[in-house]
Amino acid sequence: MSKGFFGHPAGLSTLFFTEMWERFSYYGMRAILILFMTASVADKGLGIDPSNAGAIYGLYTAAVYLFTLPGGWLADNILGQRKAIWYGGILIMIGHLILAIPGSPGIFVVGLVFVATGTGLLKPNISTVVGDLYPEGGARRDQGFSIFYMGINLGSFLGQILVPLLADYNWHWGFGAAAIGMFFGLLQFRLTQGKLNDLGLKPKLKEETEEGKVVRKTNTVLTGILALALVGFLALLQYFKVIDVTTATGIAQAVGIIIVVITLFYFLYIMVAGGLDPVELKKVLVIFCLFIGAALFWSGFEQAGSSLNLFARDFTNRMIGTWEMPAGMLQSVNALVIIIFAPIVGWIWVKLAARNLNPNTPIKFGIGIILMGLGFVVMYFAAQYAAAGTKVGMGWLWFTFFLHSIGELTLSPVGLSATTKLSPKRYVGQMMGIWFVGASLGNLIAGLFAGGVDAENASQMPALFMSVVVFSVISGALFILFNPILKKWMGNVN
């Protein structure tokens, strides 16, 4: 593989720009999604109430991460990574084109399904091919992923600037810009994929042993039993009016219950019948704790596109001179902070490690969750001004996004790395899937939370934001408090 992209394999440029344009389309569209749904019909929106709009937003963003599980399986067993990336990009582009055409809420949901399905195909598999560029592993592989990560944030930043700007004139121009962005990604992928040589062309399917067939058959039976039990459980909840699956909010709540139950069942099954030795068992317990921490963090962080986006629209003074900045553009702060501070945070960890002071994973998780909570401390005070009838300055949201972004840098890369290191070798792929499920659950919660941010009832917002503060600070403190135990269970994994 020739070197041709910042001293790395030339194929990295193909993947860098494909992911950059895909993230342009995803985050650009996400920046206007809930705003479009809650805008009145007179303003060319869908006129959906905040509660149901938040639930739809949560279901969509949760599906994006959940669909990475079947997307990875299809690539490994049938398509190969290259075809999965190509077809995934096509589905994403079609979805955005559907959203760009004015239509009914039903057609709108169809567009979201296309985007979520395509993202589930593309996102996990493009990262897999990045890893395949470096069969030797090591620090150079980490550097390659860092460059790739910069492409993600560059696309995110540009998308969250341009798409909301166009949507401010016409919602469907914004959705159309997302489609064009994905088209550029597909075009350059098709034209430059030769740089990848034969990487990702064939499925990674290996011959299955008799033992593997028995395990798969057992898992299929257990999955069927669990599915029936879940259906019965949800039916009971519906019967006793705990949830209402005839509404978007009720469906989102039901999906949340399903995700939690399946995850708990999976961990229980692995720990009881997964053939783990005592050391592996303790490491899997740590992964379970990291899953909970990740879900908590993303449930607050991902409110950037839901509750905080609505706050930016309804309660924030966005005037710069005579021009009013579109609300969705404020989300670009996150990507900008990541681009600027990712090298700085990485440098800090290296310097601390040289002095044997580098915090281990549970402490970094605790810090990340607490930083997310501190961001909502800022929003608590901003919400008090808003509840009193005063529009707040954009600096409140900027500072919140800054704290959340530093929290992301403290938690997300560390959690991803720790999961790969802690997982028993035969379960690495599944545990990585669980990491995405944690993000899915967090996104779903973030969407449901947005239902409480209502321009007609601003007085309830301070209490809503303070509930996030209390929950996150206590959770982060617990990670730090129980660090000695978790560190012991982790063994030699930092």
From TrEMBL:
Q: A single GO molecular function, which one?
A: peptide transmembrane transporter activity
SUPFAM superfamilies for the chain:
MFS general substrate transporter
Cross-referenced Pfam families: PTR2
Lineage: superkingdom: Bacteria
Q: Which residues cross the membrane?
A: 24-42, 54-75, 84-101, 147-167, 173-192, 221-239, 251-272, 284-301, 329-350, 362-383, 395-416, 428-451, 463-482
What main location does UniProt list? Answer: membrane
Domain Major facilitator superfamily (MFS) profile per the UniProt entry, residue ranges: 14-487
Q: Where in the cell is it found?
A: Cell membrane; Membrane
Organism for this UniProt entry: Haliscomenobacter hydrossis (strain ATCC 27775 / DSM 1100 / LMG 10767 / O)
Protein family = Belongs to the major facilitator superfamily. Proton-dependent oligopeptide transporter (POT/PTR) (TC 2.A.17) family.
Membrane topology per the record? Multi-pass membrane protein
Q: Which residues form a coiled coil?
A: none
Would the keyword Protein transport turn up in this protein's UniProt record?
yes
Spell out the InterPro entries in the cross-references.
Dipep/tripep_permease, MFS_dom, MFS_trans_sf, MFS_Transporters, POT_fam, PTR2_symporter_CS
Name under which the protein is recorded: Amino acid/peptide transporter
Q: Name one GO biological process term.
A: oligopeptide transport
Keywords (alphabetical) are:
Cell membrane, Membrane, Peptide transport, Protein transport, Transmembrane, Transmembrane helix, Transport
Query: Which NCBIfam families does this UniProt record tie to the protein?
Result: yjdL_sub1_fam (TIGR00924)
Query: What GO cellular-component annotations does this UniProt entry give?
Result: plasma membrane
Q: Which CDD domains match?
A: MFS_DtpA_like (cd17346)
